[in-house]
Design a protein that fits this description.
Shape: rod-shaped
Number of helices: 2
Distance between the termini: 80 Å
Mean pLDDT: 82
Largest sheet: 2 strands, antiparallel
Structural class: mainly alpha
Length: 107
């Protein structure tokens, strides 16, 4: 009988630990998505600035990166209803980006 009690206690503890682990994994998913979003925008923003420096702000390379940046912002908005502004170093919670904010060389 004692063996059965230990076995039952083991399973109760196992399920409690599994439930806690599952809750922790699920609660970290939004942060991972936000980190992914921020990293993606930072990378594309840097690539845009490099393309502009190498080829000019009106070059096809810069236009391609501008389009990628717009797509990354759209993806972030669709998945987390916010987007990262790399130049301002802040999150925006409004759909307020300017598709032409990188059209010209900053002063």
């Amino acid at each position: 009988m004692r063996h059965r009690k230990n076995f039952t206690l083991f399973w109760k503890m196992f399920f409690a630990a599994a439930t806690l682990a599952g809750a922790l994994i699920l609660s970290s998913a939004p942060q991972s998505r936000a980190d992914e979003c921020q990293d993606r925008i930072i990378k594309i923003d840097r690539e845009l600035h490099k393309a502009a420096a190498d080829h000019g702000w009106d070059s096809p390379q810069a236009n391609e990166k501008r389009s990628e940046l717009l797509g990354a912002r759209e993806w972030c908005w669709e998945h987390s209803h916010r987007w990262w502004d790399e130049d301002g170093k802040r999150w925006h919670t409004e759909h307020d980006w300017d598709a032409h904010d990188h059209d010209h060389l900053p002063n």
